[in-house]
Design goal:
Elements lengths: L3 E2 L22 E2 L7 E6 L7 E5 L4 E4 L7 E3 L8 E7 L2 E9 L2 E5 L7 E2 L12 E4 L7 E4 L4 E4 L7 E2 L6 E7 L7 E6 L6 E5 L7 E2 L8 E8 L7 E7 L8 E4 L7 E2 L10 E6 L7 E5 L4 E4 L7 E2 L9 E6 L6 E5 L4 E4 L7 E2 L9 E6 L7 E5 L2 E5 L7 E3 L8 E9 L2 E11 L7 E5 L7 E4 L7 E7 L2 E8 L1 E5 L7 E2 L12 E4 L7 E5 L3 E5 L7 E2 L9 E6 L7 E5 L3 E5 L7 E2 L13 E6 L7 E5 L3 E5 L7 E2 L10 E7 L2 E9 L4 E5 L17 E5 L6 E8 L3 E9 L4 E10 L2 E8 L6 E9 L2 E9 L2
Antiparallel strand pairs: 1-47, 2-57, 3-4, 4-5, 5-6, 7-8, 8-9, 9-10, 11-12, 12-13, 13-14, 15-16, 16-17, 17-18, 19-20, 20-21, 21-22, 23-24, 24-25, 25-26, 27-28, 28-29, 29-30, 31-32, 32-33, 33-34, 35-36, 36-37, 37-38, 39-40, 40-41, 41-42, 43-44, 44-45, 45-46, 47-48, 48-49, 49-50, 51-52, 52-53, ...
Length: 753
């Protein structure tokens, strides 16, 4: 059981870093790979050199055909890209269209400057078109921008069209004076404009075009300029038109939408430079589609893809290789015309990771739930492998992953889909992630999971519209009642680690409900003061009545009485007054006074006194790295991991040198305890060391016979824990003995079966 973080869509910001190998006392990341890629640009003179533009993570560059990627760090360039365009004949010069303006580089993207447009330089730019013949003519268009320059961008004039959002602008290569653009607005819907004098004057040519569409892309046939394709999204119509074609320059349009789309939504289209009848369409939910007859017939070409939400496909003209930009999954490449695909995202560490589960006995094993799938590392984050469902991971939000603390081989995962017609499932493993089973759930989605394992067996809890529980490892589910409202959405369901029969559920409006009998009966606690938007919720691992809650625009709160009353512990934690966003805290399972919390704009902060005061804990981590869920490793609390939005997983290994300048963070004496005690089968042993040394921890019976050695070797000072599995032993009294040099500590425990 661990804390969860609620993701507020669109509230996180960019992560500025490159992947590095983990080091002591420094935050670092090495995956998992992934990211939302919007655009791809191939160098016109060297097909091994490419740039990709991402959402929230800036530009990445490769010089080896995509085998490896490095992020271009810029303090000037906006981090959400829309388009990247090489200047014809001078490829060191680039233009980048972004969410916040148009930028120019004269050194192939190493440095950037903002292009000063006449009105609103920070307005969103969707497309940049440099005229292929008259290079002095440049167009920059977007939702609030309609600009044309005739002097290489020195000055700009407004396009002579109504003030509507422009999505794309294209030039007819056969008749370069002729240009087309597509717009969308509530009044004009899907509208096509044409200019025959280099974009000076424009006329509408949508004629009999279906106008119920939000236009996304326009492409002109390179062999016959009268053939034009338009693609987009058909609002609220599952079977609607989303691709149209004209063969007479726009006088008449007809529908060529592929059959049986999950959703009528095409992001972009690309026409093959080798065969103008071969067209690729990038869909929102059906992957990549291909037509070899000008759009009359379509087929899906998704072999090897783990993604189905595709933004753009780019064809390298000399080799015919295809490069695919996907949402969340990074970049894919095909060398056989799209028949098969291979992921080439090495070094792109911008996956949206939301939940983490750390193995309670092995700190090197960590599971992460992300929007591009579920992953596992067994080497402390140096490498990551995909686990769970083998089918492509469809678009989802806030997935959840849980490890049973009493049986770490049992792992369960779920997803919360955004589309109303998605069916959902949970995935469970009973062998530590080696194999997985898919189980359908009785509702559209389970938002969060938690596990209660006591003497009577394992029970799973899930939050959605109502709270559900399962006593057969997820095979069947029942709705909790006993006073718990079933008409509230529960974004947080937490089992107390110290008292697994105690369950907390937080419903709509941040209403906290609690049960002390594993969900049979519920009562409502007090509502925390402040804004009702709850971002994070944590149950103290030692004290079952201690709770923490992070609220948007209100800060961090603590309850010491199971939610009846709350105290603001934001204190000196730095926050932005206009955007207070804190996640956590992570609570040290050995020393609950040791807290970690993320604050938007200020990064990670640590408290050594239960939140009375805070200090930065950001070494190696950019301040704007948007934190999701953070966890101490139960087996070694000097190791910490954090899931981030658009930044994959970060980790740190604290050592003695990581303490503050004096040794006030270290325990002042050797302590030894166990919980639960008395216990059945398993108990967790907690101990603190004031300094490092050779440590031995062993179990003895009442006769003084040594039954097991749990640990024997060097260990740094600090707080530690491990678990003794007493399943093979009979009921009785046992002793835990800790030896640290000349210091010995012993505590008595009782096994009751």
């Amino acid at each position: 059981m661990h804390a969860k973080t609620l993701i507020l869509a669109g509230l996180w910001t960019a992560v500025l870093y490159t992947g590095v190998v983990a080091d002591d006392n420094i935050w670092s990341t090495n995956g998992p790979e992934g990211g939302r890629v919007w655009t791809i640009a191939i160098h016109p003179d060297d097909n091994q050199r490419m740039l990709i533009g991402t959402i929230e993570a800036g530009i990445y560059k490769t010089t080896d055909g995509g085998a490896n990627w490095t992020r271009i760090i810029s303090d000037v360039l906006d981090n959400t890209l829309r388009d990247i365009t090489y200047f014809p004949g001078a490829p060191d010069t680039l233009f980048a269209a972004t969410l916040n303006g148009l930028y120019r580089s004269n050194d192939e993207g190493e440095t950037w400057s903002l292009v000063e447009l006449p009105i609103g330089p920070y307005n969103e730019i969707m497309d940049v078109e440099i005229h292929p013949v008259h290079h002095n003519i440049i167009f920059a268009v977007g939702p609030f921008t309609q600009w044309r320059s005739s002097n290489f961008g020195e000055t700009w004039d407004t396009l002579r069209i109504p003030f509507v959002a422009v999505e794309a602008i294209r030039t007819d290569l056969l008749r370069p004076d002729t240009m087309y653009l597509i717009t969308h607005s509530r009044s004009m819907r899907w509208t096509v404009f044409r200019s025959i004098n280099l974009g000076i004057d424009w006329e509408t040519i949508h004629n009999d075009l279906d106008t119920n569409i939000y236009a996304m892309d326009l492409q002109i046939d390179p062999v016959d300029g009268d053939i034009i394709y338009i693609a987009g999204l058909n609002w609220g119509n599952v079977t609607g038109v989303c691709i149209c074609k004209t063969t007479d320059g726009g006088n008449h349009w007809f529908d060529i939408t592929p059959n049986s789309l999950c959703e009528p939504y095409i992001h972009s289209m690309t026409i093959s430079p080798y065969d103008h009848n071969t067209i690729f369409a990038c869909s929102h939910r059906d992957g990549i589609l291909k037509s070899t007859d000008g759009g009359e017939n379509w087929s899906e070409i998704n072999e090897g893809l783990t993604a189905r939400m595709i933004r753009r496909v780019v064809i390298e003209p000399t080799t015919g290789f295809l490069y695919l930009a996907t949402y969340e999954h990074g970049i894919f490449k095909s060398i056989d015309g799209g028949a098969t695909w291979r992921k080439i995202s090495a070094g792109i560490y911008n996956a949206t990771c939301i939940d983490i589960a750390v193995h309670p006995r092995n700190p090197d094993t960590v599971y992460v739930a992300a929007e591009n799938g579920h992953f596992r590392t067994t080497d402390g984050g140096q490498t990551w492998e995909g686990v769970g469902p083998s089918l492509p991971f469809l678009p989802a939000r806030t997935p959840s992953v849980e490890i049973d603390p009493a049986d770490p081989d049992f792992v369960v995962m779920s997803t919360y889909h955004t589309a109303p017609y998605d069916s959902s499932a949970i995935f469970r493993s009973g062998d530590g992630g080696s194999s997985w089973e898919c189980l359908k759930v009785p509702v559209r989605s389970f938002y969060t999971l938690s596990i209660s394992n006591i003497d009577s067996g394992r029970r799973l809890f899930a939050g959605t519209l109502g709270v559900y529980y399962s006593d057969d490892d997820g095979a069947s589910w029942q709705l909790c009642s006993g006073g718990l409202p079933s008409d509230l959405f529960y974004g947080f369901v937490q089992v107390s680690p110290a008292e697994p029969a105690r369950i907390y559920a937080v419903g709509s409006g941040s209403r906290v409900w609690r049960s002390t009998d594993r969900g049979a009966n519920w009562e409502e606690g007090g509502q925390p003061p402040g804004a009702p938007i709850l971002i994070s919720f944590t149950v103290d691992p030692i004290s079952p009545s201690a709770l923490y809650a992070g609220f948007f625009q209100s800060g961090l709160f603590k309850s010491s009485d199971a939610g009846d009353s709350w105290v603001n512990i934001t204190n000196d934690l730095p926050v932005r007054p206009t955007f207070i966003y804190t996640t956590g805290p992570a609570v040290n399972p050995i020393n609950p006074q040791n807290l970690l919390v993320y604050s938007f704009g200020y990064g990670m902060h640590m408290s050594d006194n239960g939140g009375l005061s805070w200090r930065p804990f950001n070494e190696g981590m950019p301040l704007y790295c948007a934190g999701g869920y953070t966890a101490f490793s139960p087996a070694d609390t000097n190791r910490i991991v954090m899931a981030t939005m658009e930044g994959s997983v970060w980790s740190i290994h604290r050592t003695l040198t990581d303490a503050v300048e004096d040794d006030t963070n270290l325990p002042q004496s050797v302590t030894l305890s166990a919980y639960p005690n008395p216990f059945n089968a398993r108990t967790r042993i907690w101990y603190t060391l004031p300094q490092g040394g050779n440590i031995k921890i062993a179990i003895y019976n009442e006769l003084g016979q040594r039954l097991a050695i749990l640990f024997n070797g060097p260990q740094v000072g600090g707080e530690h824990s491990l678990t003794w599995d007493a399943t093979p032993f009979p009921s009785g009294v046992y002793f835990i003995k800790l030896q640290n040099g000349m210091i010995q500590k012993t505590t008595k425990i009782s096994l009751v079966k």
